[in-house]
Each structure stands twice: as structure tokens, then as C-alpha cells.
Amino acid sequence: MSAVPVIEARGVRKRFDDHDVLRGLDLAVAPHEVVVLIGASGSGKSTLLKTMNLIERVDDGQIFLQGDDITDPRVDADSVRARIGVVFQHFNLFPHMTVLDNVTLAARKVHGMPKGEARTRGRELLESLGLGDKADEYPDRLSGGQQQRVAIVRAILTEPEVLLLDEITSALDPQLVGEVLDLVRELKRRGSTIVMATHEMSFAREVADRVVFLKEGVLVEQGPPEQIFDAPQHPATAEFLARVRGL
């Protein structure tokens, strides 16, 4: 395993108005590791992912991608984002474009992949992930779960160095959640490096190599799923999990 983390936050701080959302947070993610962020709404999970993709600029601290300081103001943000795959709660698919065109758009326009190559790779990837028969459909003909899976395929087509998933099941009906999580399981099996924020505790237990509990912008506790869920060391972790299980 490489000694250099794929992505690393060092002392990251982010403030909105007079509210400190991230307070000196440190997190390093190893190659092929799946790190799952848990915590209450407002704990900083989404903001951390947005700073990793430079959607939000940090106020202090640094973020490194494969050892490169991407928070250096001289860095071209678009070139950094081209190395990172991101999927948010909402699918953001273009309704007037087919699934295949949605999946290949960034590969062609951002990465300069030839159209023929992009479409061939897109069809192969859709097929391998159970969406081959949807390639020529339009998004409004797909279920929410299928649309979210298409958004994930779009994010991984260009083989990003890390995949950031932000509450990707929260906008879905409960019966559609499973098919999206099945795709994440498959990406884990293929060795993807993933940082994922989720409220799905049972899924976090199953898929994570490491679970990270955030509270009020601070990394309170981290460890293997069995430690965090079965024997949390910090009272705040235990309190959060007890509250979640009681819902």
C-alpha cells in the first residue's frame, strides 16, 4: 500500500458567517479504502466533502490529493475536480440527454476523451453495473434509484482517484435505496477509494473499512465498523448511535 494517502485533510477549518462548521479536522484516506462519515445533520460531513472537491474553499488548513496541495490558491480548481468523482443527493442528470450521453458528457468535454471511446466505455460500464438496457433511455423513464446509479456511473467513467458520495440515498424512496447501495458494494469490490457520508448505519457497518464520527465540525472518533458500532469509546458516539437506533 502506498505511504501517500489518496486524499488527506490537515487542520481544515471552514466557517460560514459566525458559525464554525469544520474546526481543525484531520483525515487521511488510504488507497482502496472506504471511509464512511456519520454524524447528525450539521456535523460537517457534507462541508468536508465539498472542501475536498473545492466546491468550498477552506479558511485554514490544507487538503492534499495524492500528495498535491489542492488548497494552494495557485491550483487550478477545474483540473483538480477532473481527478475526483462526486455524487450528491440529487442526480443532476440532463433530462434532454439519454443515459449514455449523460454518462459520457464529462469524459468528452472535461477529459477530452474521443466520443467513440467514451461511448464504448460508457456502454461497457453501464452493462457491467446492470444498466446496459437503459443506455438509450431518457432520465424521466428511470426510477430514482436508477437515476442515482447513472449519476454514480457518470462519476466513475473517467476512473477518478477518489469518489466522494454525499448522502446519495437520502432523496430516494426506501425501496430504491438498496439498488444504489448494491452499486457502492460493487465499487468497493473493484477497489475504489471512497469517502461517503450517509445516514444508513447498517450499510456503513457493512461497507466501511473505517467509520468516522463527526460532531459539530470535530472528528470525535474513528475506527473499524465493529468498534464504532459495538464498542464506541467516546460518550458522544454512543449517544448518537443510541439516538439513531431509537428512531
UniProtKB/TrEMBL annotation:
GO molecular function, one term: ABC-type amino acid transporter activity
GO cellular component term of the entry, any: plasma membrane
Pfam families named in the record: ABC_tran
Subcellular location: Cell membrane
Principal subcellular localisation of the protein: membrane
Boundaries of every ABC transporter domain copy: 7-241
InterPro entries: AAA+_ATPase (IPR003593), ABC_ATPase_HisP-typ (IPR030679), ABC_transporter-like_ATP-bd (IPR003439), ABC_transporter-like_CS (IPR017871), MetN_ABC_transporter-like (IPR050086), P-loop_NTPase (IPR027417)
Protein family according to the UniProt entry: Belongs to the ABC transporter superfamily.
Protein name from the UniProt record: Amino acid ABC transporter ATP-binding protein
